[in-house]
Amino acid sequence: MKKLIAALIFLLAISSQAHFKGPVLYVAAHPDDETMLGGILGRLKEKSIPTHVIYITRGEGSKFNLITGNPKDNLKMRPGEAREAATRYGIQSVTQLEETDAPMRDPVTQKPIQDVEKFLKSGVWNTHRIEKSVLDLAIKIKPRVILTMLPFHSKIHAHHQAAGQIALKIAKNPELKSSVVGVYGIQETNWYPEGTFESMPGQMKFETERYSPLLGKTYRAFQAQGAAAHATQESGHKGELPLAYEVLVPLEEKNGSQEFRELILAKPEEKR
Q1: Cα–Cα distances in angstroms (integers) from residue 169 to residues 165, 176, 247, in the given order
Q2: What is the pTM assigned to this prediction?
Q3: For range 76-96, the mean pLDDT
């Protein structure tokens, strides 16, 4: 009897997974932000789920250019790197906005500030214009799931929080009510000290050390392969990240989101 129940549960899980066909929209602040969920992008690629990304800036605010040595070259180089990374990750389309990447920096550390309210009030970004662009794209592709950055985490880049807030607001638009079943933020665990991110209710931990027969490598290696496209930035030279997992935090979930959860948490598929 126990074996029969286990078999029924397994078949139910497989059936549920088959129902999630996307699309998925990722709302990011800068080119290379997608590397934070590169393993999860591998999972979506395995299942041939249409995935789209929209970058709010072109990443010209970075203080580094590891190819030319001149950060001023980032404006013309980084969008091209993002398109190459998208190809490697299996992302179907890239939408590049042109909001100014001018992070307000702490006068002592020179690191980007983390006060998202101060940043948004500064007017560096035209939030109305961004929201319209994201909404127009979302109406066009009708995403089932929206991925983004954490919108209310006081220790991460203000641009990332702002992108998350915009994504969350767009997901609640009445025109997307019937399509979006979940919005999830990525924990930037490999970019901040241990303990920065607390365990959150309902979070999904995606183990990237697992081997994917369909990708021909581990998800961890797949993430590094895509990230290497960002050769002007440190993110393109990290290799396989130290922590072998990625964490998605539910920001909003509705009926139907369980299908996406089961997809993310399922074991890698065998080659067909």
Answers
A1: 6, 11, 21
A2: 0.90
A3: 97
